[in-house]
Amino acid sequence: MAEQRGRQQAPAAEDLRPQELAQLGANPQAIEAWLAAQEVDGEEPEDSDAQDLGPSTGPLEIWPENWTVLQLFLRLQTQWRFKPCGTLQGLRYDAVEAVMRLGQMKRRRRLFEHLQEMETAALEAWDEQQQH
């Protein structure tokens, strides 16, 4: 008993998936449905490396060929450059290279090309949001 009283349970890691999906433009109902589909027998989702999550089969299905570049894009969410006027300029390519290297990602040139497509789409969405 005394041994159990002395133990403290570590706080659960914050689940960032809802925020990440919202940043990608998913609506709250779709996010909720997808998260519910990820839970197994009412258990909380395990904290796992993003590469081990695999493609979703829920309402936010990601094609397997796009999964790695999506994970790369999400890992770079704090690596955006802003212009002095406060508008978004683009990703820091030095950080892109570091994340790909540290993540031991293969086919880096192909990944980079796909990442640039996502970056362009994100910049267009950002510009559109700023105009409204």
Key features?
132 residues; mainly alpha; 2 domains; two-stranded antiparallel ribbon; 6 helices; disordered N terminus
Question: Could you describe the 3D structure shown?
Answer:
With 132 residues, the protein is mainly alpha-helical. It has two domains: 15-62, no CATH class; 63-132, no CATH class. The chain contains six helices and two strands, in the order ααααββαα. It has helices spanning 2-6, 17-23, 28-38, 64-75, 93-102, 108-131, and strands at residues 80-82, 88-91. It has a two-stranded antiparallel sheet. A hairpin with a 5-residue loop joins strand 1 (80-82) and strand 2 (88-91). The longest helix is centred in the C-terminal third of the chain and has 24 residues, at 108-131. The model is unreliable at 1-11 and 40-53 (pLDDT under 50).
Short synopsis of the structure:
The chain has helices at 2-6, 17-23, 28-38, 64-75, 93-102, 108-131, and strands spanning 80-82, 88-91. By secondary structure, the protein is mainly alpha-helical. Strands 1-2 form a two-stranded antiparallel sheet.
What is the topology?
Layout (H helix, E strand, L loop, with lengths): L1 H5 L10 H7 L4 H11 L25 H12 L4 E3 L5 E4 L1 H10 L5 H24 L1
Antiparallel strand pairs: 1-2
Helix pairs in contact: 2-3, 4-6
**Total of DSSP H or I helical runs spanning 4+ residues:** 6
Q: Say how many strands there are.
A: 2
Which structural class do you get from the secondary structure elements? Answer: mainly alpha
> Which sheet architecture does the biggest sheet show?
2 strands, antiparallel
Task: Kindly report how far apart the N and C termini lie.
Answer: 60 Å
- What fraction, in percent, of the residue positions are helical? 40-55%
Instruction: Provide mean pLDDT, rounded.
Output: 77
Low-confidence stretches: 1-11, 40-53
Tell me the strand order in the biggest sheet: 1-2
Query: Shape from CA axes?
Result: globular
How many domain regions? 2
Work out the oligomeric state of the chains in this entry.
single chain
Strand and helix order: HHHHEEHH
Evaluate the radius of gyration.
18 Å
Range of strand content: 5-15%
